Amino acid sequence: MYWSRLLRQSHIADCMPRNCFDEVISLFHACNNDTEKKKEEDGYDKLYKVRPLLSRLNYNFQGAAEMEDCLAVDEMIVPFKGRHSLKVYMNKKPRKWGYKVWTLAGRSGYVYKIELYGDNLVIDPTDLSNDIGESEKIVVRLSEGFEGKEIFCDNFFASADLLVEMKRRGLGCTATMRNGRIGRCPLKTEKCLKGEGRGSFDFRSEKDSGIIICHWHDNRSVMIGSNTHSVGPVGVCRRYDKKAKTYTEVSRPSLVRVYNQSMGGVDRADQLLSFYRNELKTKKWYKRIIFPLLDLAVVNSWLLYRAVKDSEIQLAEFKLQVAFGLMKLEKSHEAPLHDRTLTENWLSNRASDVPTSVRYDGVNHLPVKVPQKSAPRYKLPQCSWRTRLQCKKCKVYLCVEEDGPANCFERFHTE
Predict the structure, then answer these.
(1) Is 190 in the same domain as 300?
(2) Which of 175-179, 257-261, 271-275, 381-385 has the lowest mean pLDDT?
(3) Kind plus residue range of the DSSP H or E element containing 116
(4) Whether 280 contacts 25, CB under 8 Å
(5) Average pLDDT over residues 390-401
(6) 257 with 364, same domain?
(7) Which 8-state DSSP code applies to residue 6?
(8) String of DSSP letters for 164-227
(9) What are the φ and ψ backbone dihedral angles of 297, each rounded to 5 degrees?
(10) What pLDDT sits at residue 259?
(11) pLDDT above 70: residue 190
(12) Are residues 290 and 393 in the same domain?
């Protein structure tokens, strides 16, 4: 579409010919295929094709941002309907087929750590309790290196044994739990709480371990446990009563309120990824993982940019600026003449069209002489000269005369 005559997008088509783009995508890899081990060999890695990128992103995600105090563990799904052994079906997800990704994210939606389901080279901590199951191990692995933080997860991962294990590791943990994972904790049944009405709850705490488990009834009963929070102070929340057709106030334990405030980080990240997803068609399974990982890196960068710059820039605009900056990078060779359009300089020669991230980066800004008959004039307020010299990266005409009235080249890239 970008290169078609009817819907041609000059910013993209003039930057790279279609054949070149197709060749780059077809040859795109994230590993060295010559060192890949076969299935029958020791050390075979199911995710070898994406392992270098996955490891690098996990390292950079944790090093680039200041750690949030409340982190959530949940699953995301990378859409994929092709044939592969790691593909799963999740009935409750909007995209039901794809790769499952265990994710650790903060309240803001910033992702700190990811782990692909089916990874055969994951290493569990050696000092784990024998009571910890496979789903609980996911939380322990993702939370390694985050001591002092508080982890939130749902009933797929949590159990009373997990709360004890996280407490032993110096981590807070609050999670919903299934009835069969609370041990022999003597709590009121769902039927009993339902008879007492909405907002009723029952709880038990263990003095030695500091674990508390609460059974709270709203529309349905919810089992929730924590090793850091308690039921008090009991607050209230507004609920709509269908029979009375009015809003009522329902009692709510404190740990339920904290859980609701902190558990949505992974869902927020998944939502941001779904807005502007790179839907590149490919038959290679690993590319269907790599491209969403690159999208995730851009979303994380956007969240960091907004936090550091105190900016309200929207995600779509940020992605456009990133793409614009990448297209401005120096290319190793110029495109052949037959691949160019008549509009040689598709970027306007105005300072306002050059993003500040490119203009002031101090990389590859070199004056080059443009062969043309009439010399254009770059209109800095203090300059009225005409010049054929152009910044190779910014594509802006700038004079470089030291005795000139403005010395545009230096001022443009520094002021």
Answers:
(1) yes
(2) 381-385
(3) strand 111-116
(4) yes
(5) 80
(6) no
(7) S
(8) HHHHHTT-EEEEE--GGGSTT-----HHHHHHH-TT-EEEEEETTTTEEEEEEESSSEEEEEES
(9) -65, -40
(10) 94
(11) yes
(12) no
Q: Do 212 and 101 belong together in one domain?
A: yes
- Cα–Cα distance for residue pair 151/69, rounded to 1 Å: 9
Give the C-alpha separation, 163 to 380, whole Å: 65
Quote the tokens at residue 201: 């709850």
State the Cα–Cα distance between residues 196 and 105, nearest whole angstrom: 37
Could you tell me if 274 and 409 lie in one domain?
no
Whether the model clears a pTM of 0.90, i.e. scores above it, the answer is no
Burial zone of 50 (CB within 10 Å; 0-12 exposed, 13-18 middle, 19+ buried): buried
Which tens digit of pLDDT belongs to each residue from 28-43?
889 998 888 988 888 8
Structural domains counted in the chain: 2
**152 and 212 assigned to the same domain:** yes
Angle between helices 287-309 and 315-327 (to 10 degrees): 110
Inter-residue contact 397 to 390 (CB < 8 Å): yes
Q: Are 273 and 110 in contact (CB under 8 A)?
A: no
Distance CA 101, CA 310 (A): 30
What average pLDDT score do residues 225-246 get? 88
What is the spatial distance between Cα 59 and Cα 178, in angstroms, rounded to a whole number? Answer: 33
Residue 316, H or E segment? helix 315-327
Q: Is residue 163 part of a domain?
A: yes
Q: How far apart are CA 188 and CA 205, in angstroms?
A: 14
| Distances 396 to 54, 344, 359, 366, 391 between C-alpha atoms, Å | 38, 13, 10, 11, 5
- Domain assignment present for residue 8? The answer is no
Q: Say what the pLDDT of residue 380 is.
A: 60
The pair of structure tokens assigned to 293 is: 């990982």
* 48 shares a domain with 161: yes
Look up residue 376 and give its two tokens.
């254009």
Q: What is the pLDDT of residue 349?
A: 45
Encode pLDDT of 112-147 as tens digits: 999 999 988 888 887 887 778 899 999 999 999 898
Q: How many residues does the chain have?
A: 415
